[in-house]
Structure formats: structure tokens, C-alpha cells
Amino acid sequence: MSQFITAVLTSLSSGAIYALMSISLVLVWRSTRVINFAQAGQAVITTYVGYEIISRTGSFWLALIVAVLTGALLGAGIDRFFMRPIFKRIQSGPIAVIAPVVATLGLLGVIQSLIGMIWGIDYQSIEAPVSTNGFEIGGSVIAFNRFNLFVLICVTTAMILLTLLFQRTNIGLALRASAYSPEIAKLSGIKVDAVRTFGWALAGAASGLAGMLYIPGYYLHPNAMDLLLVFGFIAAVIGGLDSLIGAVAGAMILGFGISFSRSYISTEILFPTAFILLILVLIVKPGGLFAAKKKRGA
Amino acid sequence: MSLVVENLTIDHGAIRAINNLSFKASTGSLTAVIGANGAGKTTLLRGLSGLIASKSGSATWNGQSILGKKPEDLARSGIMHVSDGKSVIAELSVKDNLALTGLWRKDKKDVAAVTNEIIGLFPVLGERMSQSAGSLSGGERQMLAIGRALIARPKLLLLDEPSLGLAPLIVEQIFQTIKSLVKNMNLTVVLVEQNAMGALKIADEGVVLNLGSVVAFDSAQKLLNDPAVRTAYLGY
User: Fold this and answer.
1) What dotted CATH number matches A2-129+139-284?
2) What pTM, to 2 d.p., does this model score?
3) Taking burial as the number of CB atoms within 10 A of a residue's CB, which of A20, A49, A118, B167 is the most buried?
4) Which residues 6+ apart lie within 8 Å of B87 measured at CB?
5) Rounded to an integer, what distance in angstroms lies between the CA atom of residue B227 and that of residue A3?
6) What are the residue ranges spanned by the domains of chain A?
7) Picking from A50-59, B88-97, B205-214, B223-232, which range would have the lowest pLDDT averaged per residue?
8) What is the pLDDT of residues B2-35, one digit of tens each?
9) In A, which residues are within 8 Å of B76 by CB distance?
10) Low-confidence ranges of chain A (pLDDT < 50)
11) In angstroms, rounded to a whole number, what is the distance separating the alpha carbons of residues A52 and A54?
């Protein structure tokens, strides 16, 4: 029983982190039609900024806030000064699809090298702000701790705020309209370029949060978020790539699949589980579980 | 005070879609642009609303050049383009579609007022506010697209084929609405249409396009009676 409860709880907390990454990817994909590989680099460099703040002030909370804000600024900056010029110059043909994606891959390499130059490539660690000793259930300690609970609360709060932003605010409507139909949005007077930059900022903030919530359980190094990028991407594809709800659902499916197979089959089964889930979903529903509904014809 | 297009040329890749085109639309008038498929009608509107770049020539609205500007800036300055067919965002609700053109307007009171006017004009939209635009019929989508444009209180409305794919009865209804809008909302309308007869009947002026060039520019009445236009475009 306690094994089952542990598996459920770890599913939720790891799923929550995957969700932040998949949401980051979906936010960018929806607005730009680009898979942003640099997201892993953005997440890790903002976490390094957080690490720097902690080593200077000792405050995880300040570091968390600064990292999220840095993530937002970095995301906005990348879109404004890196992606937008690329899109301006290449507007059509197959290269218009490939070039921006390759550019993000290049950017990932640049960011990771930059980290190596500034902070070195040694493993660093960030201490969790709350206890990481497992909770006790019926006298036995389980692999779910106060920090995991904190992660769950943080991510849930972020999701609620994001949902309210998208559904209840003007900028949310502009984001949705620009994602579904940039042309109609422009013709309606919406500054789609600026809206897109805001979408990149949100994605950057979410990945910054992902880094700060993920690293305390592991180690900080330039490639620390690479695995999460893969899982975030799998979750996003499972969810249909276009849907924020799909991204969260995909992340939870992945979280549960991985945790349960690890606790009931083998701890070595991380990767196979993720990819088997992905392949299963793609065979059954190639567009992902939450693929956008086809428009009704005339 | 008018839309003046002079020697406008637009290339579509290697193809010259609009060739040295000139016409005028005076304020408060309805100008129909007719011509066969591929005559360049849609390209003309896309050029005027800033969606595509022009190669040479000029276009001014009330004396100010509109070429080379961004579509969102033109939209905010009162030039609204309702793009081809049913230009609505299917995934958004009717309410959200209508709200798009009010988002950036400062005068929120007027946005509310004009939204009510639009719902008065197209009551069916009022009944379907929370439905997704994708669930609307073709005619309803067209009303939504026009309604959305009107909420910006535009001065110049560029309409691309509002009759496309609609039943004849609905087409008639849409055309009459457009005609009355010109009068009631002090609009200048450029109406691109494949349905030449219907468009010329409600228009003041008509522009006949062929392969990107103007072959006739005259009062709509005269074009309706012109034997050459009748055989080529009106089919009788």
C-alpha cells in the first residue's frame, strides 16, 4: 500500500515538473511553430542565476523569483533579437521550417558553453528550501518529501495563474487569437509580434521555474535539464503539441507511467517507458490526445 | 478624402499579380472590384491592408500613404480588411471573436456601445455568443467577420468575397447589409466579389480586373449595362 501511495505521489511531483517543460514548449510552438530546443539551455542558465543568488544571499526564495524573472526576460530577448530576425529573413520554403529549429539547437549549444565559461562544468548543488526527508506513513518513510509537496503546490499555482491569464485577460485573448490565426489577429489590430514575444517570455518563466524546482533534487551542471527537455517534449507530443491542457495531461501520463513502472517493474526502465508511451499514443492517436479539433467546413 | 490607388504593382513570387493598377474610391462610396478567378482581386486587398508588400506604385487613404505599413497599424488607423470567405477564428467563441477589435481601443464605452449595435444588426450573433465560431453556419460566420471589423469603427472596409459559398438568399441578405452599412456607419467600402452581378447592383462604382490590370473603371450602373462586361462577367 505504501509503495502504491509513494508511486502516486512521486508521479504527481515528477509529472508537475515535466508539465512546466511541456508547457514551455507548447507556448512557443503555438505562437511560433518552432520546437524550442534552447528551452533546456534557458532553464539551466536561469537556474545558474538562481544558484548564484543563493550563494551570495543564501535565500532560495529570492533566487526563485529572480530565476523566473530572468527566464521571462531571456525568453523575450531570444524571440525579439534572435528568432524575429530569422523569421524576417526566411519566410517561405522548406528552409523556413527547418532553419528556426536548427537555430534553437545552436542556441542551446551556445548557452551551455557560456555556462561552462562562467560557472565551469563541475557539478553544483542547490539545497532545497524545505526538508527533503520523506514523509512517514504508518511508521515507514516514503519517497515523497516536503519539497516534493512544495513543487506540486508551486506548479498547481502556476497552472491556475496561467489558465486565468489565458481565459480571463485581454492579453490572454490576444495570445490565443495570435496562436490560432496570426493573420486574422493582425487584421483585427493585434500586435502579433509583441504578443508572440510575450508568449516566449511566459515559456521562459515556466522553464526557469522548472529548473529551480527540479535541480534541488539533483545536481546543477550545463546539461542538467537535457533529460527534462526530452520528457517535456514527449509530454507535449502526447498532449497534441497545441494544447496547454494536453501538455499537462501528457506530463501527468508520463509521470505516472514512469513512476509506476519504476516502482513495480524496474528502476532502470525510465527511458523505455517514456518512449513506449509516446509510441503507443502516436499509434492510437497520431495527432496527440488533445489535438485541435478540425474546423468545420463552410 | 478617399482611397487613391495609382500604378500599383504587386508580384506574387515570379508572377505579376497586380500590374500598374489605378482606381479611386471616394469617401462614403461602395466600390465593387470584380473579375475572374486569378484576376488579382484578393492580392489587391492583401496589398492594401499590408499583408503583402507591393513592388511599386502608391496607395493613399485621405492623402496618407498606406503602403509599407503593418496590417495591425492600418487596422488601428481605421482600415479594416475582412479577408477571404469566412474570416473568423473557429477555435474562439463568438464573443471572443468580436472582442478582438475592441482589445486595443481606448474608448471602452464605445466598444460596448458598438458591440450592442452589431448584435442588434446581427441578432443571431447575440444568441450564439458563447458558442465557438467554428460551429456557426457560413452566413453567420460572415456576419461575425463583418461585425468584428465594425467594432473597430473603421472608416475604410476592405471586404474579400463575402458571398463565397453562401446560399443565394443569404448572399442577398449580406449584400443588403453591406449597402446599408455604407450609409449608416459612414463607411467607405471596397468589395471584392466573384459574384459580379450582385456586387455591381449594390455598388456605386465598379472596377473590372483582368490578369492584374484594370480593364474598366466606371459607375456600377454603366458597367451593368456594358455589353462587354455583361458577356464576360455577368453571363447574359
Assistant:
1) 1.10.3470
2) 0.90
3) A20
4) A184, A187, B145, B160
5) 87
6) 2-129+139-284
7) B223-232
8) 999 999 999 988 889 999 999 999 999 999 999 9
9) 189
10) 294-298
11) 5
